[in-house]
Amino acid sequence: MGNTDQKARKILIGLGRQIFVRDPGRDDVATITTGGSMQLWHTRGGLRRIRNLAQMLILEDPDFGHLDLESLEKLIQKIVWDLSDSHEMFSVMSAARGEARTLFDARKVRDEHDFSFGVWFILKSEILRRVTDWLVLYPLPSTESRTFSPDNSTLTILETEDTSSWSELSSRFPTASSWNPRRDNVKRDYFNSEKQYGAWAVTIASGLVDSAARVAERRFRELIAVIISMSQSKSPHPFIKTIGEASRYCILFPADPKRTAIGCMHQPVGPLIPWPGNKIKISSELVADISGWYARAGRLDEHMRRRLSNAAAFMNLGIQQRGIPQFILYFMTLDALFGERNRVEEAIQDGVARSVTVDPFTREKVKLLFDLRSELVHGGIHRIEEWKSLNHYWNHLRSEPIHDIGKLAMECFVKFDKG
User: Fold this and answer.
1) pLDDT at residue 179, as a whole number
2) Do 229 and 410 touch, CB atoms closer than 8 A?
3) Would you kindly state where each structural domain of the chain is located, as residue ranges?
4) Cα–Cα distance between 134 and 366 in angstroms, integer?
């Protein structure tokens, strides 16, 4: 038996001793659960063991290396709590008669080796049973586009009427075949009205359903940031958003429904895009620009690609916000792209100079925007209207700080390596 299996079994024995079948009278009880047969007191030490087990499996077992910690931790916790209600593994009567203090004491298999082997076998089998590929979709409101793959790999923009491409994308996912992106057959609890969606963002992610949704969310946030930033970099007008809210859910179809016991799942991820005031039209030129962005991103080293991904996440969140949160998030985008510890302002200014045409007018604008940022983040003011240089900005530069920092951040984001 491998070293990882031995360590997992040891953690499970320790976990069993941290789950009490009667009130332990301790102040480190984190939660109490009631199953069909027993009430259980879970200590913080027990929850730490669950996290330790999840971390160890991700780091040391190749079967679990692609899973994310939070999802695996939640799943282990659920499986362990379900197992605790098993009459085959634990004696309810020994707990009721006060003969057992912990779940480990209440086990029916008295040999520690055999007991831990059985629990570990069930736990590992239950986790792996839920791991599969997932087809994940998120609706793009007021978006007009032909079907294309911006990165020629993991992402697709699917035009709602493109049944041929949908058939190809869904061919490995049996339960997706009965779902039609053209019809309003998605629960309105999840999507307001499918008829308003001209396109869907689609990706395939592997792992547990929570893991797949989280991976898809990150990819979709980046894609939406790229689409809006690209379209805005070519437009003299600001991006207009309405008070309407786009979907907070994505829809997932498993490649192996029998294995996961799930045919279709809706998971919260958003919203990932504000409801646009004007239709987003992804022209052939914009398709080429978006694909070019992903091609350049694919040539970055791991460190720079991670920074770009983080910048995309801040950009996506900034696009959805208003006021000071939006201003700060746009600055965080620039910081993720160019910032360096202990020389943030100089590094961002250098990065901006490499990415856009900087004339004296733009230099003054950047300097003033940094001053406003400093006043906000260091407690000098709490409203932009209180900024002492606001009238000068309006009268001399004839613009708005939030509009300017947004346009600057978007332009740098789409031209990140063209300096």
Assistant:
1) 87
2) yes
3) 3-129, 132-289, 310-414
4) 44
